[in-house]
Amino acid sequence: MKAGKDMTKLLGVDYGEARTGLARSDALGLYAVGIGHIKSYRMDRTAAEIVRTAKENGIERIVIGKPVNMNGTCGEKVEKVTELARLIGELSDIPVDFYDERMTTMSAHKILSESGIRAKNRREVVDSLAAELILQGYMDKIRNQT
């Protein structure tokens, strides 16, 4: 990631089979900002929508949450996000990175609960918040490495 006003624009993705949360980096590359979710049961449509959103926002890198199991192993869900990244690569030349997303959706539910948002109202924002947590974690990791 670049520093200063030439900061790389990032899109964070929390993939789900029904809803996929999206977040983008702010203008300074310091914070992740949720931008909603994609409702689709078809991975090819989800990939196309991610690419469309990325292009509309001038995104230079896509960060997809990698749902590693708590014991560090990779299961079926990791295979699905790997397939999503492959589909995105077929539709665009925007580079894709993965970020270990263990516990992000659970953390998003906890944050929303502590904020007083009722359980039935969380569905519309939890995926976008999970994408924010993924992207924020990625940006913090990159920033701490430099």
Give your account of this protein's structure.
It is a single chain. This protein has 146 residues and is α/β, with parallel strands linked by helices. The protein has one domain: YqgF/RNase H-like domain (Nucleotidyltransferase, domain 5, 2-Layer Sandwich), CATH 3.30.420.140. It has helices at residues 43-56, 76-91, 104-114, 119-145, and strands at 10-14, 19-25, 32-39, 61-66, 96-100. Strands 3-2-1-4-5 form a five-stranded mixed beta sheet, sandwiched between helices. Helix 1 (43-56) packs across helix 2 (76-91). 36% of the residues are buried. Residues 1-5 have low confidence and may be disordered.
Considering DSSP H and I runs of 4 or more, what fraction of the residues is helical? 40-55%
Quick one: biggest sheet?
5 strands, mixed
Q: Assign the CATH topology.
A: Nucleotidyltransferase, domain 5
Number of helices: 4
Strand order of the largest sheet: 3-2-1-4-5
Percent strand equals 15-25%
Which segments are poorly predicted (pLDDT under 50) over 5 or more consecutive residues? 1-5
CATH architecture: 2-Layer Sandwich
- What is the C-level CATH assignment? Alpha Beta
How many domains make up the 3D coordinates?
1
* Average pLDDT: 85
Structural class: alpha/beta
Radius of gyration: 14 Å
Order of helices and strands: EEEHEHEHH
Span between termini: 9 Å
Shape: globular
Beta strand count: 5
